[in-house]
Design brief:
Elements (H helix, E strand, L loop, with lengths): L15 E5 L2 E5 L1 E10 L18 E11 L3 H17 L10 E5 L3 E15 L2 E13 L6 H19 L1
Antiparallel strand pairs: 1-2, 1-5, 3-4, 4-7, 5-6, 6-7
């Protein structure tokens, strides 16, 4: 048996990362992540030119554990990132909103709509975090290209390993 604990395995590569430059918050122990896409459709019988759907409204929800001695720092960083997502970038050349990088999805221009922390006596060295993000893209194909590129890279890496 190894001397390392199972928790130490999470300290190498995060399952998800929230980027609001210059901050990057790694989430190592993500237990659940869901992507919800909703579409606004015109009423049945509407004119043909109105039948084309608009872009989807993407919502990502994730639950994770902040583990280890840096958990309080990551909690504070998550609060800072959530506040920055509402106000936009503080420097003009930085992108607005949060960039979410994960194995499920990579999205730019995300905003935190809900953030909650839970501490339990059973897990004294962990903080449970739940984050809900909404995709608020700018017009143009940049977000779709970023997601497509990230998916291609992750698929290639998974295939080669």
């Amino acid at each position: 048996m190894s001397d390392r604990s199972f928790v130490e395995e999470f300290l190498h590569l995060p399952s998800a990362t929230l980027l609001a430059l210059p901050l990057a918050v790694p989430l190592f122990a993500v237990s659940r992540m869901s992507l919800s896409e909703s579409y606004v459709l015109p009423p049945v019988g509407a004119a043909a030119f109105r039948a084309a759907t608009t872009a989807s409204i993407d919502t990502v929800s994730l639950s994770a554990l902040l583990v280890g001695p840096q958990r309080l720092l990551w909690k504070k960083d998550l609060e800072t990132v959530a506040a920055a997502s509402r106000t936009g970038a503080s420097l003009g050349f930085l992108p607005d909103g949060i960039t979410l990088v994960s194995t499920l999805v990579t999205r730019t221009h995300m905003q935190v709509t809900e953030l909650s922390f839970t501490a339990a006596a059973q897990r004294i060295d962990c903080i449970e975090v739940s984050v809900t993000l909404r995709h608020v893209p700018k017009p143009g194909p940049l977000d779709a290209l970023v997601d497509l590129g990230a998916t291609a890279v992750l698929s290639a890496v998974e295939f080669l390993t």
